[in-house]
Design brief:
Helix content is 21%, strand content 37%. It is an alpha+beta fold. Helix 1 runs antiparallel to helix 3. The chain is elongated, with a radius of gyration of 20 Å.
């Protein structure tokens, strides 16, 4: 396991801030030792949390052109037929994955194919499990056309804490199943919009792993 490149700058800035805070509170060591140890212990805890948030595990992919893999780690919070109004303008099966701050926050390509469309939209910051977050929060939508000609849409959604969405793909890019799609910082959600005729392989509240869990299969 390594540190994701999106975390380098934040980790360094966070470390410098904690060093300053601890230097300021050093004089309290002799007069109020409990405060000194509280600040020092809390600093170590939060620094470890930030490092763990930006961890980048090594994760192999079992390629299968018939499978649609989970684009993120987390829990399934919604499975429903919806009208997808941005790109398809028709009914799609929406599967939503909530990523807690304890999950890794890398996002992956669920299928192999060609990037047909990307769009970033500003918006609100509802908590990521709120139904409104899919349409009203800041979000980036990516459409990948499968090698079999079927397009799917993956939507990165910012949450109440997550305020930074990073997307690496652009229209015209050729991608392989399991390639890194992007990163969302500090708690968020990823929706995937699928054709209605896919075979669904997951259920509500199920824990999923990006590049490992098969969300659905093409019929």
């Amino acid at each position: 396991m390594t540190i994701h490149r999106e975390g380098y700058r934040i980790i360094v800035l966070f470390l410098l801030a904690l060093i300053v805070v601890n230097i300021v509170f050093i004089p309290f060591h002799h007069f109020k030792g409990w405060l000194f140890y509280l600040i020092s212990g809390g600093s170590a805890f939060f620094f470890l949390f930030v490092i763990l948030f930006f961890r980048k595990p090594k994760r192999s992919v079992e390629f299968n052109s018939n499978h649609i893999l989970a684009p993120a780690d987390g829990s399934i919070v919604a499975i429903e037929e919806v009208l997808e109004e941005l790109y398809f303008h028709d009914s799609r099966l929406q599967v939503s994955i909530f990523m807690s701050p304890l999950n890794i926050h890398m996002n992956f390509c669920s299928i192999s194919g060609t990037v047909e469309y990307t769009k970033h939209e500003p918006g609100n910051y509802w908590v990521a499990w709120h139904p409104k977050s899919s349409k009203e929060n800041e979000r980036t939508s990516i459409v990948i056309k499968h090698t079999n000609g079927t397009p799917i849409l993956i939507r990165q959604i910012a949450g109440a804490v997550a305020r930074r969405i990073v997307t690496y793909l652009k229209p015209g890019n050729e991608v392989q199943q399991g390639d890194e799609l992007g990163f969302i910082k500090f708690g968020s959600r990823v929706d995937i919009f699928l054709p209605l005729n896919v075979k669904l392989n997951v259920g509500l509240d199920q824990k999923v792993k990006g590049n490992k869990t098969v969300i659905a299969s093409f019929e």
